[in-house]
Amino acid sequence: MSKFDPVIQKIANYAQAYTADESSLQEAKRCFFDSLSCAFLALEHDKVKSFCALPYISDSSGTVGVIGTDIKTNVIDATFLNGSLIRWLDFNDTWLAKEWGHPSDNLAAILALTDYLKSARGKIYSFKDVLNFMVLAHEIQGTLAIENSFNKEGLDHVVLVKIASAAVASKMLGHDHNQMSAVISNAFVDGQSLRTYRHFPNTGARKSWAAGDASARGVKLAFITEVSDEHYPSAISAQTWGFNDVLMGENPIELKRELNSYVMDNILYKVNFPAEFHAQTAAEAAIKLHSQIDYDDILSINIHTQEPGVRIISKQGPLTNYADRDHCIEYIVARCLLTGSLDANSYTDEAASDSRIDMLREITSTSENNEYTRRYYNLDERAIPNKVIVTLKNGKVLEEEVIYPLGHRERRDESKPYLKQKFENSLVYLELDQAYLCEAYNSPKISDIEIYDILKKIYK
Predict the structure, then answer these.
(1) CATH code, 6-265
(2) Which pLDDT does position 274 carry in this prediction?
(3) pLDDT at position 429
(4) Spelled out in words, what is the top-level CATH class assigned to the domain 277-402?
(5) Can you give the residue ranges of every domain in the chain?
(6) How many CA atoms lie within 13 A of 259 on its CB side?
(7) pLDDT digits (tens, 9 = 90+) for 192-226
(8) With contact defined as beta carbons under 8 Å apart, do 87 and 276 qualify?
(9) CA–CA separation, 273 and 109 (whole Å)
(10) What span, in angstroms and rounded, lies between the C-alpha atoms of 107 and 349?
């Protein structure tokens, strides 16, 4: 048996053995239903409907369902569509560290495999099992993100979705330690996405389906490893051709932290605002200021944010599409100051046609607050601070500062009613058993929920 790179061994050791406690499983339950709500809400958008109608998706012999639809297809394509739906509106959970991402993207693979394995292999999982798989995937993706910055190397964070989905898919397929290590090594060898579609001048909608694609790749690699008996022990460390030498430059990948349930326990929810998470507190601050100002009275706007907020979402010049706008902190603040609200329709061409938004963007400056950056990277605090300062033409200065976003662990109890309402709102326009799904959401005992009953209820 070949000895795998330490990072691969550590991930495999963890995925093979870890079982989350009740508190973490309850958080995973909340995350599970929040992820479903994001998928349900996405189905209202025409572009999503066209993805669900892709000609290669239909499979008359398919057995695996897709969230909120009557589609039956194969497990790989079901993972892709599940992931695309969960991620489409940029409204699912978030993790912020040296790297960023959305760990619930991995639920795409977990749902599809749970459905597939029952009919194809007679493997039955409980709802508790599914939630534990979520904890594993969150921890693998999120802990790698704590210690490594892929974005600084021009790589997209969905590389971590692929790795986490591959590891958990291997776990669900019943692979032993060596097989799982082989699957993970394949995920590192696999081609990795560039971040170019998240940045000017190429910002586009790929960011809405990239994670679904990565999760599906992880599942596919797990199946391939079953029949190919291949493994790449030094996939990360090999000189010249390994992941580190080819992609990571002077910053080789590390995984020093203990793996447990830290990521799930501290996950960030997008409660009210479908916007890039570094701007969540800026949106909340701007909405608080809305009722205190009139557009014609504004002289200038200054946004104080963390370093990643400047680097990722501070943009000047034309914003050409939806994806450009929901990743622009100046657009988000302007829209919130003008309307006092922010929803999935705030980034459409129609919403952006309001000329006042660009006029406010032109008088807005965005700068890093060093203390905000320090608090952002402090793992004991995990703050995402923003301050919005509006100077009026009469010289009066109004400002609002928000340190922790709604959805942060520090505001978890405050968030719970909003998350529940978000889930209930997502069901309104769907032909699903709303009563059952709401009952499952409210059930205090995980053991009272049957995952296969949920699967039946979330498909048309």
Answers:
(1) 1.10.4100.10
(2) 86
(3) 87
(4) alpha beta
(5) 6-265, 277-402
(6) 27
(7) 999 999 988 898 989 999 999 999 999 999 999 99
(8) no
(9) 26
(10) 31
